[in-house]
Design goal:
single chain, alpha+beta, five-stranded mixed β-barrel, 5 strands
């Protein structure tokens, strides 16, 4: 479909691990390494991201130069958009979205 987000230029896909507060998100790369990403105010309170969601980030825009935050979130991907990226071959091999999102979205079992 036209207009669906795809990584462009230096942009790439990460998976949200947890919010660190102050619009800072801890994210996982396809190789398992973790990076800190910044959610710009234009997306804050407009789009919600939850643990396990996939995001497109830009390493070059507005991130703190020399700081711990290395990427800026440009899109929060919905499951249909993840499917689109897989279908067109732009999905990172390190992520298995159907398995990971299903596990992350399930509530913990009470024991």
């Amino acid at each position: 479909p036209r207009g669906w987000p795809e990584p462009k230029g230096e942009e790439f896909v990460v998976q949200l691990v947890r919010s660190r507060g102050g619009n800072t998100m801890e994210c996982k790369l396809p190789d398992g390494a973790e990076v800190l990403c910044w959610l710009p105010s234009k997306l804050n309170k407009v789009v919600w991201a939850q643990r396990g969601d996939y995001l497109i980030v830009d390493p070059s825009s507005e991130a703190e130069a020399g700081g711990k935050v290395t990427c800026t979130i440009v899109h929060i991907l919905f499951p249909e958009q993840v499917g689109h990226l897989r279908k067109i071959g732009k999905w990172p091999e390190g992520f298995q979205p159907s398995e990971t999102q299903a596990q992350e979205k399930q509530p913990p079992a009470n024991q």
